[in-house]
Amino acid sequence: MPHDIWINLPVKDVESSTTFFNEIGFHAVSVGNERAQLSIGQTTILLFPESTFEKFTGSKTADTSHSAEVIFSIGAESREEVDAFIQKVEFAGGSIFGKPSESDGWMYGAGFADLDGHRWNLLYMDESKMPKK
């Protein structure tokens, strides 16, 4: 059974997206002329121009200004990390759709959209306050 997974993500401008993700603290590098590789933990996300993405999917990309196709959730180590990360996103040109806040007494997170409108959230879970079954 295969063990690796790569997520392919269409972007309008690979260079601008690579810069954005590096500015917010991810590791993104150009791979060839028209793509980049974004590494988050053990997950690899490949950034492709929309036209290339459409060729190998056989369909149009989602219009993220009107709908969401997916949300990428990333774990944080602390509430402070969530707050600092969201500040980096704002400075780098991303948009915040969910300001940092607490949920259910044990989760603290925030949501943002990258330059292409793809949605992400950063979430800290305080396991000491998690409800027990």
Plain-language structure description:
The protein is of the alpha/beta class and 133 residues long. The protein is 24% helix and 38% strand. The chain has three helices and eight strands. It has helices at residues 14-23, 50-57, 79-92; strands at 6-11, 27-30, 36-40, 43-49, 71-75, 95-103, 107-113, 119-125. The strands form two sheets. The protein has a four-stranded mixed beta sheet with strand order 1-4-3-2. The mean pLDDT is 93.
The oligomeric state is: single chain
Structural class: alpha/beta
What would you call the shape?
Answer: globular
The mean pLDDT is: 93
Summarize the biggest pleated sheet. Answer: 4 strands, mixed
Determine the N-to-C terminus distance.
Answer: 33 Å
Helix content: 10-25%
**How many beta-strand runs?**
8
Biggest sheet, strands in spatial order? 1-4-3-2
Strand coverage percent? 35-45%
Nearest-angstrom radius of gyration? Answer: 16 Å
